[in-house]
Amino acid sequence: MTEWWVKYKGTIPSAGLSFPEDDWLDLRSSAGYKLHTYRYPANNPRALIFIFHCLHSATSSYSHFAKKFAEQEFAVFGFDQPGHGRSEGPKGNIRDFDDLVNNGIEFISKTKEHYPDETPAFIIGESMGGTICIDIALRIPTMINGMILLAPALGVNPDLAPFLVKLVRCFAWCWSGMPLKGTDPNLACSNPINAQWWEENPDTYFGRLNAGTGAALLRGFEEVQDQIGNVTTPFILFQGGHDAIVNEQQAREFVKNSKVEDKEYAFYKEMYHAVSNEPQVYEIIDRILEWIQERV
User: Fold this and answer.
1) Beta bridge partner(s), residue 145
2) Strands (E), the chain
């Protein structure tokens, strides 16, 4: 039987790649859901790198990152949030943004127990995963040596009127499962087959965002916005000029207003939102590796 991903090999960076170790660590959410974990090991790793996926995606979509990192003697880890990828829970649903952050902190803490205390740790997140990374770095700054943010979701798009934000919260209170207006998947990535791959991939969720999930994300964005000035973890932020999902100006303001001195803004004018599947991704991976190596 032909694997579903074969026709995407060569056009979708992660197609045909996988983490060598699945479900290697026992991890459960606060609601008791079993969370699927991944590891790309390295002998005597120079650093530990933790990947946090975007909304409705899965860690498997970042296997091309993990492979490149492991080749440079970095051990790479990830897990699927509840309702995402291969983890348990209602598909595509987020109950509370704090749960996602706490899941990440527990995963990092449990993973670090398997390695020498002095091994540096870096976190990388795309879109929603970037928001989670910032929140984690705010809560456990002494455990994180640096973070890599790929088009992080830093707030509500200014084009979304305050009235609509209130509407989302109202629906979340009275009907959390109400589906919201979907975003055109073709706006997320310049790769013309990205939407088709996303729809066919068994690890991703192609359904519409619901009101409960939307409200949970809004709370997470607000928490990060309120604490931008408290960010002390070194970071590099990658942002595209053709990003129709998150707002570029918010990314620039985050870099400007965060207090840490070791920070970098990497802007790619032609890049869309889904950095992990954009044509520039291999150049970005090389730049990430260089950035980490300078800090190990």
Assistant:
1) none
2) 21-22, 37-40, 47-52, 74-79, 121-126, 146-150, 235-240, 263-268
pLDDT attached to residue 247: 87
Give a yes or no: residue 1 inside a domain.
Answer: no
| Residue 255 structural domain | 6-293
| Beta bridge partner(s), residue 47 | 74
Note the pLDDT of residue 193. 94
State whether residue 201 is helix, strand or coil: coil
Structure tokens at 8: 């995407």
- 267, 124 contact by CB (below 8 A): no
Neighbouring-strand partners of residue 76:
40, 49
Q: How many domains does the chain have?
A: 1
Cα angle, residue 42 at apex, residues 40 and 44 outer, rounded to 5°:
150
Beta-bridge mates of residue 75: 48
Spans in the chain with pLDDT lower than 50: 160-180
The answer as to whether 42 is a domain residue is yes
Q: Which two tokens stand for residue 266?
A: 């990497």
Euclidean distance between CA atoms 210 and 175, whole angstroms: 9
CATH number of the CATH domain containing 105: 3.40.50.1820
Q: How many of the other CB atoms lie within 10 Å of CB of 261? A: 7
Assess contact for 35 and 103: CB atoms under 8 A.
yes
Q: What predicted TM-score, i.e. pTM, was given to this entire model?
A: 0.92
